[in-house]
Structures are given as C-alpha cells and as structure tokens.
Amino acid sequence: MRSAWIPSLMLVPLAVALGLTGCGAAGKTPSRDLGPGDQMSGSETGGSSGSLPGNGTGGSSPPIIMMDGGAVDPCAEAGEPEGCMTHTVPACGDGMLNQDDEVCDDGNTLPGDCCSGSCKLEPNCVCDDMGANCHSTIVCGDGMRGPGEACDDGNTTPDDGCSPDCHNIGIGYSCPTPGMPCIRHFVCGDGIVDPNEGCDDQNNMPGDGCSEHCRIEQGFKCDGNPSKCSMTTCGDGKKEGAESCDDGNRVAFDGCSPDCRAEPTCATGKACTSSCGDGIVFGDEECDDGNVRDGDGCSSKCRVEEGYLCDNDAPCTTQMGVDPVSGETKDICTLTIPAVFRDFNAANQTGGHPDFQPGYNSNGAVQGIVQDTLDADGKPVQVANLPTATMSNAFLHGQAAFAQWYRDAKPSSGPIPGQLVLWDNGKGGYVNRWGKNGEQWQGQLMSADYQPITYGGPAGGGCQACNVSATGMCYDPCTPWSSLDQTATRYACCAEIPTDGKFDGNPLFFPIDTAKGILTEPRSQGGVPEQYGWPGWPDETTVATTLGIRTAIQTSTAPFPSTTHNFSFTTEVKYWFRYTKDLKATLDFTGDDDLWVFLNGHLAVDMGGWHVPLNGTLTINGATVNAAAQTDKLGTGPAIPKNGNANGYGLTDGSVYQIQIFNAGREVKGSSFRLTLAGFNMTPSNCVTNCGDGMVGPGEECDDGVNKGGYNECAPGCIYGPRCGDGVPQTDFGEVCDEGETGNVGAYGGCGADCQPGPRCGDAVVQTDAGEVCDDGMNLGEYGGCAPNCQPGPHCGDNVIDVPYEACDDGNTVNHDGCSNCKVDIVTR
Q: Residue 540: helix, strand or coil by DSSP?
C-alpha cells in the first residue's frame, strides 16, 4: 500500500475528479459509487473485510467513494522535519462531543457498542450527559422482555425455565408473561421424565418400551432424559423395569409368570390370594396394573393415585393376523395364556414312562380315573384301587406313575415353558388356531364345494376361456376338479371360493418339537383327525399334497408338513378369573388324549384315557355351573352332563379363582387341541387421568373442564388445542413462526415462546454469543453503521478511505500518527 497525504481541502475536487475519470491516482484503487443494491468485495475495497452495501438511504446520505488508505505524513508535506509537532482535528471517535452532528462519542469508531462508528446512538441504548459510557437499556432479569430476549422472568436464576442470559427457554417450559415465573408443562413426549411419568422417550408411539402415556411397557426398562429404553431379560433373576418379580426362570405357575409378573396363590378349593403387582384386582386392592411402580395411576400399594381413573377393561392386545371372515391381514385381538409342557418317552423306550404309547386303538374316554379334587400341590390324583378293566382301558399303571405326569422329576423332561395364543373368534370368545397368524384349519374340500366349475383353458395360461364371478376365482391348475380327476391339473378353471370347511383349533398340535430340554425318542408325522374335515385320518404329508403345499410352512406350533414330530407330552394350563353372581363364562375344549378341567380345585370336565378328539364344556351362568363331556369311541355321540352350582365349587361373589386344564398326548398319530374361552377375560388395570375434572392431572397437558379445543384452549383428551407451540403457525392469531413445543425456545435465528421471531440479526440487539458485532435493526451498511450480516460496515480504521466521511484511513485508531480518527493531523507552527 503506498503512502499518501490528502489535504482536506482537496477532498471535494478529488472526489469529483475520480468520479469523472473512473480511474485512480497513483496507488489508488478506482473509486466506486455504491448504490442501494450494490456490494463491494474486500479485493475491490483495498482490504475492507466482508461485503459492504451502499448507503441504502434513498438519498439521505451521500454516496461513499472508497479508496485505498494508508499512512500519511503531514510533516513531510508541510516541509517540516520528521516528527514535527501536530495536533488532531475534532472527529468522531475522539471521546468528546465536539461536532454538531455527534449524539455520542465513546472514544472509538466501531458500531455495536451503543455508540455507532458515526457517533450516533444505537437502538435500545442510552449514554451519559457527556455522550460517553453508553449501555443497553435491555437488562436480563428486570422482568421486561426486550428485543433479543426469549424470556425474562424477573431473575437470572438458572434451571427455572428462562436461562440466566434470557436468551433461551428450557424444554418443557413456557414463559408467556414477562416478570412472572415460567410455567412447567408436563407433556408426554417432550423428552423429559416428569414426576408422574415412568419414562419419556420424546415420542408418543407404543411398543418401543415407553408407551403413548409415558409408562414403562412390560418387558422394558427406561432411563435418562429423553428416556432410552431397552428390553429386560425376564428369567435372569434381576427384577428391573416393568417386572414385578424375576425368579430366574421363564416357567409359569411357580409364583412368577413367564413375563415376570407375580402370580396369585390358589390353595385347592379356596379363593386365591395375591400380592400387588400380579395384574389381578384382589380383596381391598383398588387396582392392579401388573407392576409395583408409583406414578402410573396405580401405586405400588395397588391404590388408585390422585387424578386417575382405573378399570380392568383395558383394550385387548392385538397381533397381525388373518381375519377368518374377510381373509384380510389386520390387527386382531388376542389372549395369550401361559402353559407348561413336560416331555416323556414311550413305554417301550429306554427310560420311558409306562403310561405312554399304548400301541392300540382306544374304546373312547374313561371317566372316574382321577379324584374330584386336586392335591395340595394343585395336581390331579389317580383314584386308588381302580378296577383292572378300567386301568387297562385307560392304559394306567398305578398312582405313583400317574403322579409323574405333571411333575418335574424323572422320567419327565422337567418343565418346558410355552404359551397358547387365543384369537378373537368374533363371537365374544378367544380360541387357538392352526396358523401362525391365526389362520383356521382347512378341511378337505370336494368338487361340490366349488360349484359351478367352468373350463378355463390349458394350465399355466390363466383362465382365458372363462369369466371369474364376483364370488369366485381362477384356479390354475384346476384343483376343484382334481379331487375327481387327477388329469385336471392340466387345465385352468373358474370356480367359486368355498365358504365351508374351516375349523378353529389345531389338528396338528406339536408345541415342543424343537423346544429346549425335550427328550430323545423316535419321531413321526401326524395324522389329521376326521373331526377336522379329513375322513380316514390321512397323514399330514398326504393332506399337504392335496392342499397344494409343496414347501413346509410354519404353523402356530410346528412346520407343516413334518415327519419329525415329538409325541408323548403333557400340557398344564392355569387361568384366573373373578367370579361374580352375574358372571356368564364358557370354556370349550376339543382334543386328544386325556383332558381334565378343574374349577377351584374341583373336577368339572372329565375325559380321561387316550381317545380321538372329543368335546368338553364348562359353563358358568351366575350361580349355575354346568359341565359336559363326550366319551364315545368315534367322537360323534352326545356329551355326558355334570350339572352343579357355585356353592358346590366353593365360589363366592367377588373372589378370584383358578381354572386348571390338564391334557396328555399319549398315543402317536393324533395330537389335536382346541381351547375356547369366553367371559373369563382378566386384564391388568388400565389407569388413565380423569380428563374433564378441571384439574391438570399427571400426563395431562391441560384440563379446563370443558376442553372444546379453541385457540389456546384445551381440547378433548386433555391435550392442547391449536396454540403457539403446536408446530403450525396460526397466522390468523398473529403467530409469525412456530417450531413446536420443543422448538420455540428463543434460539438464535429461531422462534420465540410467543411465536414471534427469536433473537436474530436485525433485532437491534447485539447477540455477541452468536457472533454478531453490531445490530442497529436496519443494518444497511451505512458509514459507521452495521452491515446486513451484523458485522461493521464502512468505518474509520478499516484501512479504506470512505469519501466524503474520511480524509485518511491508516487502518488504526492511534492518534498523532498523521491520521487521527480518519482526519489528517495539522502541523503546529
């Protein structure tokens, strides 16, 4: 940069000359008159930083002509010796109010400190009478929200919703009224675990460990803010998360369920008792949600917590399954019941049990081989001294051998945990099914079930020669004809979709084929019983071929078809229910082999011995308790009734009792199981806040007692209606922006709590923590003012001579160096 001295008297002629010629004198960059929309880069301005706009005032200020600055030497120009005495000219930045147009002078020429580089007072600022000691009138903590403040609650205390610098609002807070404390909102989904939330993972989606009501879901544990949820391991011996117990195993009926919930204690012939946390409301319990956590509506003492309503009519648990009516795959209500299986080897195998695998056909069910009541362990007891013929017909070998069926000691495999999934049958009950996704079993269909059948052309080409009816489909190959003519597989055909031949239950019930802990014995395929629509008990491989199944598919218990099924096992199921004097409930069962149902420890359904699938029923209708059981050889005869009453089974109004089902599969070929429950549904308490009571309860966002949902009003469900904070700018109500509950925190460049723009460049407040150096609200880039990016505009000390405001600019603010405050020093003579 070349040195130059520019006498003040030459400013106007020089400016005119440069403006006319468009070229500079020696060492000078050509001048440029910046208009309102122009900008000049640093290279063009000889070293000024950033982009500087023109005056932008529409003619209120003269155009700025920029030229390279540099050092000046007034002594040499005046012919005086180096270092001659000089004095400064009054100028902005000298710390004195000594010019008519100065409003302030704080001793520097930079904007952003309340006194601009042209000695003008900046917005929201005051100075003393001398025009110095300038400071902002915006004071965090004064209870008035000024420009650039996101909030001001009247203090600078941290962690109260409004940050100590008044620039940010804490998540979960709103600060609508300056000078007043910020309001803490307990909102499920805000990522902060409130006092009455078990978790908050910053969303309202169930199934991820933290429910839509911010409660820890069964099988999970959650920690932190926002909550991080992970699956617990039921059976590891550590009680954590939503578990109310963990005894180190996944076996049911030992006091702790397979999903780690406490189980009731039920002595034979007596009402059950329990501890809080088993999901069943007992005695003086007001609720029981299956855990012992406070703050979720049902306390650790099973009392309804303030602000909540609890009932036991919780929504059903759903699974994706096939609707048997429409055939659609959708969410279907299910009921999951724990079961315990025990494996045995056949009598003719090493270590086998004498009662398993008779090896010959049965004459039907045998009644009267077990006692009327269970023993102290809750197990069936064989009647002593049975006649020899009865023992033979039932293939039994004494009380001691029978007692092993449902116990864990050898020759049993020990307990094998499992479960039965019952699907909503559309008739008020739940039933297990053959398919993995709740599909019903398909009985054998004959050609008559598809009529009318119309030839559709050669196989593989679709039904080109026929029209499919609204209730039919194209069969390619034509399986409806193949039952009569095997050559029909060479054709396609149009035919109706059969509406009959569907069965609930599972004709191929093999739940422990691959279970851990099973015994080793020869395997074989199963046979499909006539009771499931296949005459003659065909092997499952034959049935699969007829149904067109070429590759094995997974069913609810085992692959189909399979030739490696595990036979010889017992099944034990327990279920609890509350008896009331007006209860209407039914248990239906179809299966083979031995089947006993006990109600409160008393025998109700009696179908002992190995046999074809037979039907048994238990019905409770208030004080009447009736049971019935088929016993005939073919399963086509009438059921033998056993009528009784509640008193006979020891049932009293309001108490909880146990139903126990004992089943055994003792002969190869057949293993079927169908269990239907209706009216026995027991679900843990479902606790929700009492929305509409006019009090904001735990988990509620609001509650004004009306909950209409207008702007800034509470909506149905006790959630906020349209409002500032809902993420949608309500322009009709004056909102400029809305980044949601967690976004309206007044962050720099963001949205404030009042849905007005938050701190930003252009708000007339210098946000130094955001990198701003200045902010006069307009930021037009005028001389001594602020540029659009909140950085200084042209100013004294930027090493650029800004005509007509500067006579020189040596890039510093040192006085008596030839250029002081951008005015050339005057030689003192």
A: helix
Burial 528-564 (b: 16+ CB within 10 A, else e): bbbbbbbeeebbbbebbebeeeeeeeebbbbbbbbee
Q: In this predicted structure, which of 175-184, 419-428, 515-524, 684-693 has the lowest mean pLDDT? A: 684-693
525 Cβ neighbours under 8 A, 6+ residues apart: 539, 540, 541, 561, 562, 563, 564, 565
Cα distances from 166 to residues 149, 152, 747, 752, in angstroms, run 5, 6, 10, 11
Lookup: tokens for 658: 């146990």
For residue 494, give the nearest of 459, 466, 460, 462 by alpha carbon: 466
CA-to-CA distance for 430 and 614, rounded, in angstroms? 19
**What is the distance between the alpha carbons of residues 483 and 477, in angstroms, rounded to a whole number?**
12
Distance of CA 685 to CAs 279, 311, 550, Å? Answer: 7, 5, 46
Helix (H, G, I), strand (E, B), or coil: what is residue 399?
helix
Compute the distance between CA of residue 572 and CA of residue 337 in angstroms, rounded to an integer. 11
Closest-CA residue to 39 (of 24, 50, 25, 23): 50
Residue 234 near residue 258, CB atoms below 8 Å: yes
Query: Position of tokens 């005894």?
Result: 247
CA-based torsion, 95, 99, 103, 109: positive or negative:
negative
DSSP letter for 336, please.
Answer: E
Write the Ramachandran bin of 661: left for phi over 0, alpha for psi from -120 to 50, otherwise beta. Answer: beta
Q: Are the C-beta atoms of residues 768 and 757 closer than 8 Å to each other?
A: no
- Burial grade of 828 (CB within 10 A; 0-12, 13-18, 19 or more): exposed
CA–CA separation, 772 vs 648, rounded Å? 87
Reduce the DSSP state of residue 218 to 3 states and report it: coil
- Residue holding tokens 């969303």? 203
C-alpha distance from residue 709 to each of 315, 693, 699, 712 (Å): 26, 16, 18, 8
Q: How far, in Å, CA of 660 to CA of 369, rounded?
A: 17
Tokens coding 370: 């077990």
552: which residues sit within 8 A by CB, 6+ positions away?
A: 559, 560, 561, 562
Over residues 60-67, mean pLDDT: 74
Asked if residues 478 and 453 have their Cβ atoms less than 8 Å apart, the reply is yes
- Cα–Cα distance, 618 to 629 (Å, whole number): 9
Locus of tokens 């189909």: 560
Q: Helix, strand, coil shares of the chain as percentages rounded to 5?
A: 5, 25, 70
What CA–CA distance (Å, rounded) separates 354 from 651?
37
| Nearest CA-CA partner of 747 in 147, 148, 173, 142 | 148
Residue entry with tokens 């009392």: 303
Q: Work out the end-to-end distance of the chain between its first and last CA atoms, rounded to an integer number of angstroms.
A: 30
Q: Angle CA(87)–CA(93)–CA(97) in degrees, nearest 5? A: 85
Place of tokens 């930003």: 760
Q: Sign of the C-alpha dihedral, residues 526, 532, 536, 540?
A: negative
Residue-wise pLDDT tens digits, 339-382? 999 999 999 999 999 999 999 888 899 999 999 999 999 999 99
Phi, psi of 333 (to 5 degrees): -65, 140
Whether the model pTM is above 0.70: no
Whole-angstrom Cα distance, residue 577 to residue 620?
12
Residues 732-772 have pLDDT tens digits of 998 999 998 778 877 888 888 778 888 899 989 898 889 99
Question: What are the distances in angstroms from CA 346 to CA 522, 572, 650, 666, 767?
Answer: 9, 19, 38, 8, 85
H-helix or E-strand containing 492?
A: strand 491-496
